[in-house]
Hints:
Blueprint: E1 6-12, H1 16-27, E2 32-36, E3 49-50, H2 52-60, H3 64-70, E4 79-82, E5 91-93, E6 111-112, H4 115-130, E7 134-136, E8 138-145, E9 150-156, E10 162-172, H5 179-184, E11 188-189, E12 195-203, E13 217-220, E14 227-230, E15 236-243, H6 257-268, E16 276-285, E17 288-290, E18 294-295, E19 298-300, E20 306-307, H7 315-334, H8 344-367, E21 420-422, E22 437-441, H9 446-457, E23 462-466, E24 473-474, H10 479-484, E25 491-494, E26 500-504, H11 513-522
Parallel strand pairs: 1-2, 1-10, 2-7, 4-13, 10-19, 22-23
Antiparallel strand pairs: 3-6, 4-5, 8-9, 9-10, 11-17, 12-15, 12-16, 13-14, 14-15, 17-20, 18-19, 21-24, 22-25, 25-26
Amino acid sequence: xxxxTTTPVLIxxxxxxxxxxxxxxxxxxxxxxLAEARPGTSRHPKARGISARxxxxxxxxxxxxxxRDAGLPASQVFFYRGRDLxxxxxxxxxxxxxxxxxxxxxxxxxxxxxxxxxxPVLSGRxxxxxxxxxxxxxxxxxxxxDEEGVSTELEDxxxxxxxxxxxxxxxxxxxxASTVRAGAGVRMDGPTGLGHFLSVRFEAPLGGxxxxxxxxxxxxxxxxxxxxxxxxxxxxxxYQYPFDPEDPRGDEDLGDRKHLEDLVRTAAGxxxxxxxxxxxMIWRMDAQLAxxxxxxxxxxxxxxxxxxxxxxxxxxxxxxxxxxxxxxxLAAVATGRATEALLDSYEAERRPVARQVIDxxxxxxxxxxxxxxxxxxxxxxxxxxxxxxxDPAAPARPPLDPSGYHPSGAPGVRAPHARLAGPSGIxxxxxxxxxxxxxxxxxxxxxxxxxxxxAAAAGVxxxxxxxxxxxxxxxxxxxxxxxxxxxPSGAVLVRPDGHIAWRxxxxxxGPDLLRILRRVLTGAPWTTATSP
Length: 532
């Protein structure tokens, strides 16, 4: 097993969350090692819905087109409800995302791409960037930590060879049964067993059956049970069958292929359907949140930090949001631009979001087929932490706003999307966000560039992006600053994850840029006396 003996960051877990973290760390120039116990990417579709916010992350990494090519066409992003697949009284809701691409609140609307199709795309990019530092078939056996780092023991599952790797930071992206979380002594709080399901991956010639009702998900109403998840809306499908393992009346053999084929035929409403079962997976619906996201030099992300009911499609997406938040902070600490205290803002910002997502998804589970899937919910995330400069003019906001996305320039929120007319390859203000801090302004005042130059001279590069008057022209001049609630002389300082760290109405407003950046990167608390 050819692995390094030391690494700044060790990622444990190579699902969508761990692979996205690897891609982001490579983008920030941070050396790292990823260890995944499985021999390869997932064969089961598992998670399928990719929200607008996750697509924006993939867009920033240059992966949006590849992910879209791997998923369902936008014209099929509907949600079907009926007694079975041939119910003449079916209803279908949802709006095809192709109708709004590039418009509205995001340049990157959500889509359906099952995990078995997504992971190869992410793995390919991660390997292209990090090479053999992305290692499948490698298991974490144990670890110990001290003030300087984490000593881990890894095992190559093919030949049993073991190696000790010393990491500056260990990030657990290893799922609900996280070895990293258990080793760090972090507990999970919340109910388990909210439901039990059998997922049956099968092949059947259903493309013609659903041609007039093609959807991403097919929820079955009574007397139907469970629902169908489209993999390709043709031959490849998942049937999710709910069951009660404690029901003494249950006499079903969930391992019998003929019985499973009959379950699929009954649910589809087609007695003679030709069904071939490929594999099955039994899973339990839980709603749990880790008591903490950081324990010394160990951090948790994705299902290792929160287990979210799938009713709403926010589980994987919340995990992708975790690592988008964490990656730039790890990079800043690893390169010496920030103190370790910056990492405390990770839990402060992401744990409240997960708490609210869990609650909303649990409510959806109780509502059964009556809930609404909100593609833009995670766009509304608003952070409060030492990595965000408080703005007395900004109203207090919950972590998420279920009422809908409302563009704003308030510190802590995602920078709003405004359409740009050029140059080529840049069509949204979100495309201006780089791997470092970005200052976006419409002002031609040289003071903004002077402040950015002073920050760069002190070791904190800031890229100034000026809207209007040059190459960066808005389709609707002034729209970005209007959305941000700023005059043209103002600016917003955008973090590498696309969230606003600070806004000012002019270069002369409050402290200079370098002072703001130093306080953000050192994790010093903002008080009335120190706030701008």
